[in-house]
Amino acid sequence: MDVPETFYSLVETVCRDLYIKSLKEIPPDVVAAIRRAAATETKEVAKRIFSHYIQSIELGRDKNMMVCQDTGIPIYWVDIGGNLRLDGAKLNDAIIRGTERATREHPLRSSIVSPLKRENRQTSTGEGIPVIKYNFVRDSDCLDILFIPKGSGSENMSFMKMLVPADGINGIKKFVLEHVVGAGAKPCPPTIVGVGIGGSSDLCMSLAKKATTRPVGSKNPDPQIAALEEELFDAINQTGIGPQGLGGNTTALAVHIESAWTHITCNPVAVNMQCWRAERRRAKIWADGRVEEGF
Ligand code: SF4
Question: Which of 23, 71, 192, 275 to probe ligand 1 with, by most ligand atoms within 8 A of CB?
Fold first, then answer.
């Protein structure tokens, strides 16, 4: 089905709204996980931090305020329905314009700079930014856009290593635990720990980041990987790092692993953490102009 010209301006507006709304309304599964962690916490300082988190979540929702000051790196995953016939270049431009409009019209702090000159266009865009990843979905009639404003505190705690096959699963566990413990307070725990295993080096890191966007409580469909998620989750929460690294029972809200097949001589592993606010927002858009928003 061909999309009308108005489709691209709709995508632009939706992308603007995804950016702004994601900074103010925390996904319900994340809120529930924070409330659960707060209810079971035994350390006084951790209880106080959780009560600040909950207050920030409520202020964002009720007073239209940003939950955290960091507008992050804008990242979009775009699933294009196989039944849609659209102009990919126009779609890409619309997403970039939506990002720029969010920044100018709200206005938001533009957190994006060139890597060496540190030049800021004040639009949250630049070469390669926003990050936009495309995928194609068979038998679908809609465009499904998932957005995260990736905070720098957690993004700076990203790690990747090409282990060798002889390192096996134990090597993967050791790598994840060493880096989550080493990161300490920096990623603003409790985090969703995203782990990528397999693929090429770049795919492995992409898998780790995408893993952080899964709803808290979801499991990898592969039982062996789901068991590894649970084992790492228990181990990380025994470290006692706690919220903001000041000690407590909850260091991770979840551990999510995504995987891909790899080369016979490779055993890649990557860690990408999402901070406690774990903001994400999604919209499905149809050619007739219908839009469905969610998380
Ligand atoms: S890591 Fe997350 S919670 Fe911490 S300052 Fe950045 S966006 Fe805010």
Answer: 275
